[in-house]
Automatic annotation (TrEMBL):
It comes from Photobacterium alginatilyticum. Belongs to the peptidase C56 family. The keyword Phosphoprotein does not apply. SUPFAM superfamilies: Class I glutamine amidotransferase-like. It catalyses: glyoxal + H2O = glycolate + H(+). This is Glyoxalase. Transmembrane segments: none annotated. It comes from the Bacteria. Keywords: Lyase. Displays glyoxalase activity, catalyzing the conversion of glyoxal to glycolate.
Length: 216
């Protein structure tokens, strides 16, 4: 049975992992006959957002503790993620990918990826194991894989320009499809960068996960 490592960035679209994307991906993995295990960095969130008002709250929350809500406690610190133990990698989106796993939301093309996240993702790249990045998470790809890596965040021109400026090759993609960089074995899909509903997000995620498990 193929094993998929999933890296979460908290819990909640505006300051953590996009919950719909995460759950859809976990469900799709199981539907393809594979298993999953979640990981997250044991660090403080960049900030905490009230998901009703979109206002920043005067709180501190931990990325690993919050991500455990999605994983129902079936999660480990990312320092314990070893690529040799898994067949493939998947990162859901949500602003946590651009605020907690990296600082892309604030620095754009000049972003840096959390050192442990970078180590784990590059280990899968070195092992030539397939990896999937959803929604805004593909902005990590140029830093992980280097110049020429292909991926999509959908059609948002500003984000696509930043992806290209970082050395990647952005490819526009509709919500119900995915992009495969065959050389590097990277899969990307727009998900909620374009989706207007859970069903629309699922349309691309399900196709991506099916191919991810096939490649694993």
């Amino acid at each position: 049975m193929k094993r998929i490592a999933v890296i979460l960035s908290g819990s909640g679209v505006f300051d953590g992992a996009e919950i719909h994307e995460a759950v859809l991906a976990l469900h799709a993995i199981e539907q393809e006959g594979a298993t999953w295990h979640c990981f997250a960095p044991n660090i403080a969130q960049h900030h905490v957002i009230n998901h009703i008002t979109s206002a920043e709250m005067d709180e501190t929350r931990n990325v690993l503790v919050e991500a455990a809500r999605i994983a129902r406690g079936n999660i480990d610190d990312i320092v314990n993620l070893n690529a040799t133990d898994y067949d493939a990698l998947l990162l859901p989106g949500g602003f946590g990918a651009a605020k907690n796993l990296s600082d892309f939301a604030f620095t754009g093309a000049g972003c840096e990826v959390n050192p442990e996240v970078k180590r784990a993702c590059q280990a899968f790249a070195k092992e030539e194991k397939p990896a999937a990045y959803l929604c805004i998470a593909p902005t990590l790809i140029p830093t992980i894989y280097g110049p020429g890596a292909k991926g999509t965040i959908g059609t948002d021109q500003d984000t696509a320009n930043a992806f290209n400026k970082m050395g990647g090759e952005h490819i526009n993609c509709p919500v119900n499809d995915f992009v495969l960089d065959q050389k590097r074995r990277i899969l990307t899909t727009p998900a909620y960068m374009l989706a207007g509903s859970i069903s629309e997000a699922a349309s691309g995620i399900n196709k991506l996960v099916k191919e991810l498990v096939k490649l694993a």
